[in-house]
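From the shared-data thread, chain only:
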Amino acid sequence: MTPIRSITQKTSIIIGLFLFLMVMTESWTAAKIFGALMLLRIILTKPKILLPSQAVTLLGLINLLWLAASAIWSVNLNATLTEFNKVIFFYFLAVVSLNEDSSGGQNLLNGIALTAFAVSAGWLFSPKIQGVIVGPSSFAGFLAVGGILCVGLALQSRKLIYALAGFVICFAVFLFASMGPIIALLSGMTYLLIKSFRSNPALKKPILIAAFTLSIVLFKTFIPYTSNPFYNLQPPADSTAGSPPFSYYLSSIPFQKNRLHHIWERRIEGKFSSERLIFWQDSLKMFLQHKWAGIGLGNYPDYYPEYKTIIENRVAPHAHSEPLQFLIERGVIGFALVMFLAITLFNSLKTPQGPSDPIFLWKAGIIGMLAQSLADCNFRFLTISIFLALGVGQILRPEMEWSPSLKTRRVIGVFVVFLTLLFALPGAAHLTYQRGHKDIARLFDPMNSGYWASSGRMRDLDIALMLEPRNVWFHQKAADFYSRDWEQSHRPGSLDCAHNHYKRILALAPTADFFQKEYLDWLKRYYEKR
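Structure, as tokens:
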């Protein structure tokens, strides 16, 4: 093995470890450190920094300005700033990836494929990993992208290990029984196989094998095989009966309980299988009332209770459709700006140099993500956002160059370190909060209303309501606090405050029956005793 190849493989492993950490923890802090290290390496080693075309740069800045302006009419400033921070990181990571040469892009692909294989194998065989998965549908969407990459790498390198990894990942995606990731996998894989065949007809045999294997796995979804007959088998009670049957050893494979559900069971029998259609109907009503400027980044959960028609105590954290989410949060103006930027980006894409060009794989992965995004908010999943940003940078054609002086490079390096530490504060606050240090968490991230609302003190809850005035759950906490205070002190003012918070809840969530029932029960219990 040559030293260069050894370094390349080590880089892929390091990237894979970083991505594994992000997949398992959803840590934006880890992502920012990862991006900062990539940028510092470019600043210190590249004589020239590549930039996209002037049109792309200008439209990107205009989009950022519009998103920053949405903070003016936002009702949840912390959520808006948090989402704005993520958008800036997305842009920044795309520019960083733009400066990666072919070997750097290959390292990124290998690292992502390695991560997807590791976490899919872990999810299949480790109950511990199954218990820490965040956002199963989005997690499976990331696995779908990894499966596309592994099959593409197998076609390019003719290595069996990539083909086996791709099969394991695809099998895991289908076992998740979520339609969005399956759509992503099929869309990206179809593009990949067609493009691979057209660019290199010599790959006809392995392409047919890949297509046939994928068809077999897809066909499996129509077979209602709902249990593992080898699960929890016991060995013969009589030790003289000879060796246990072979099926007993098969039972040691840790497919837990009914892991082989067929894919349509959840769609047909699930209690909330049609809920997404209701989300879209509610979201459309929200958009029509805020169509021009939108509600502001990250404000969807604050507005949704007002339009909620789904049954029981259920709410939607997002619209379950990225285009619809963009329309609601950014308005028609912001959505038009995004479309102009997307069209300009499309016109600035690189031309693949041959069948082994990694651009094919990046495009296939992005197509899969975009297909899933039509009926899912998968871009909110950290690792999918990272892949999309890296992919945009890899397939975008650089059209400008910048050669900063040594002094400028040092200033940029110091600035990047400072920003990384600053942007790491919310992550540090989350870690300290999980360990019970609420005061330190509020010090690190004072704009996070959740930290204030959890202290149990009304003065802190007032701060939380000031930061997030449409949060019905905070108003519910306030009503409960004043009700308990009235029980202890019988101050009439406390009962009036509780009543005001309940009236605010009913105004913010007029169609939520459980809030109305809770209010009527409260009236019978407290207000009639006044």
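The chain is about 70% helix and 0% strand.
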